[in-house]
Amino acid sequence: MDKKLIDESKKYLMNTYNRAPIVLRKGRGMKVWDTTGKEYLDFVGGIAVNCLGHCHPKVVIALQKQVQRLIHVSNLYHIEPQIKLAKLLVENSFADKAFFCNSGAEAVEGAIKLARKYSKDHFTSSKYEIITAYGSFHGRTLAALTATGQEKFQKGFEPLVPGFKYVPFNDIDALKNAITDRTCAILLEPIQGEGGIRIPSADYLIQVRKLCDDNKSLLILDEIQTGMGRTGRLFAYEHFNIEPDIMTLAKGLAGGFPIGALLAKDTVAAVFQPGTHASTFGGNPLGCAASLATLETLLEDGFLLDHCRRIGKYFKDSLEKLKKDFPSYIADVRGLGLLLGIELTKAGEPIVESCAGRGILINCTSGNVLRFTPPLIVTEKEIEHLIDTLEDIFGR
Ligand SMILES: *Cc1c(COP(=O)(O)O)cnc(C)c1O
Q1: Residue 219: which of 187, 178, 172, 260 has the closest Cα?
Q2: Is the pTM of this model over 0.85?
């Protein structure tokens, strides 16, 4: 343990995270190393961010080339990699237009603004309400925090932003009761990530889509965690036979480099005009170059998405088997592709610590859900090693 550095971390940084006593210095593929030289297998992947693994050569080279050419110019000018990235995202999604920002929360803020403005421009000024789900997570800025249907994140930061309503996730009747002609949008994660890897029933999103259409409300999907191949499709909505009107992306979008994006259909995107929304750093050359390299790599021959579906199934089957062997520890196994979770019957944090001690990084969300979001390049052997380690920990 690097005590000196960790003490300084506590001294100089705001105490917003319960950090593990590990200082990571280097990463390659599935592996990271700390400042003492200890090696870890990384099943966190920067929380579903490092989708191609650490320091993927294509991303590294794209960043190196771009950093020498041009780092920042602002959106007062056209930016080459930004245009290429928008084109590739549009060609591979439901959307016609993209807007780039720098983080997930910022993308959600943009989506909320876009939906409100669309409804005000096309309908009435009282059509501004947004319905979101309990257990959701949409980010930490004030409107994103208000959209997040979990009190524990909102406590202490009131007054929240007006115009939000919450319903239980995966309960279509609750949504039918909540929707009114004041509803401008329904904002959902296709699979709740932070809320404990919760997957809706097969037809839920189809019914939500229909409800939105009938009520002239927009469907905003927050794919910040589920997007970029994480579930075995480029975007999770592809599993559910629907398309959103607006989608938010961030996390894996640039394979580790910070970026956020807002995608929308033309009719919706058209309400953003010069002066209505902006970001100084949004869509900067570096982030877009990293994202372009990431997206190109993800789409190459569909190899990685194939692998994600296959290995994700293997991983989930292995977790199911673990559940059979340790029924008193594991209450449920959930997920799709490489967005997987096991709900424990007890707190997850001690298991996370034991795994770190044994050289494996995993994450715990919602108190008792172990969340696995490894790079999409994870192998069977690495998954076996994790399962053996969990067996060993549960067995003690
Ligand atoms: C992580 C996450 C966010 C917030 O992203 P930040 O980049 O941390 O602001 C929003 N929505 C979902 C679904 C997320 O998983």
Answers
A1: 187
A2: yes
